[in-house]
Write a structure and sequence with these properties.
It is a single chain. By secondary structure, the protein is mainly alpha-helical. The protein is built from nine helices and no strands. Helix 4 runs parallel beside helix 7. The longest helix is centred in the middle third of the chain and has 24 residues.
Length: 196
């Protein structure tokens, strides 16, 4: 069973899917696009768009839930409960880095921060990641002196940063997971150098 089946029903309407696909593409390159611009990009009339989404907020919530479903599927595919935590983290990174546009949307769309349905879906999506971090702390693979929520927050933004670096041409796609994993596990400081 996928993570969000009980919270987010699958989309079976082809026109709705078409609009969501187009909106996601356009907003990734033009975050302030209007509903009229989204309708034009989706090749539908504005009235058709409004039949599916009453306003911009409804569209943003639908896109947020859809992004969470995609990320939730990638998390489930990473099989985080099996094997060493470091190996599970690498599987997670391999699957999530290509979804950085979804992470960007989730981390930057303000309406998502206050919508109860989205917040519940987000909480469900984060549970396997928090469980993986706690398992790593118990096994000694991850530092136990840092709060799970801190590590989780850092991981989410680091995954987005890796995607962003690939998109900007600073990092090769094949190198991003290794670089991210090295940074997460080893940090950027030199061992033995004093900290305050």
């Amino acid at each position: 069973m996928r993570l969000l089946e009980s919270v987010v029903p699958p989309i079976t309407d082809a026109r709705r899917t078409q609009i969501l696909n187009a909106a996601g593409e356009l907003l990734a390159i033009q975050p302030t696009a209007s509903l009229a611009e989204i309708a034009e990009y989706a090749k539908v009339g504005k009235a058709t768009l409004h039949r599916y989404f009453a306003g911009r907020d409804d569209l943003m919530i639908a896109l947020g839930l859809r992004a969470l479903v995609t990320i939730g599927e990638a998390i489930a595919d990473a099989d985080l409960d099996n094997g060493p935590v470091i190996d599970a983290l690498m599987r997670l990174i391999d699957r999530i880095v290509p979804l950085g546009d979804k992470l960007y949307f989730l981390l930057n769309e303000p309406i998502l921060d206050t919508h109860p349905e989205f917040l519940e879906a987000d909480r469900i999506t984060q549970v396997p990641l928090a469980r993986l971090i706690a398992r790593g702390q118990q096994s000694g693979e991850l530092r136990a002196d840092l709060p799970v929520d801190w590590i989780l927050h850092h991981l989410n933004y680091s995954l987005y940063a890796a995607w962003s670096s690939v998109q900007a041409g600073y990092t090769a796609r094949r190198d991003a997971p290794r670089l991210l994993m090295t940074t997460i596990v080893g940090g950027i400081g030199v061992r033995g150098h004093p900290t305050r």
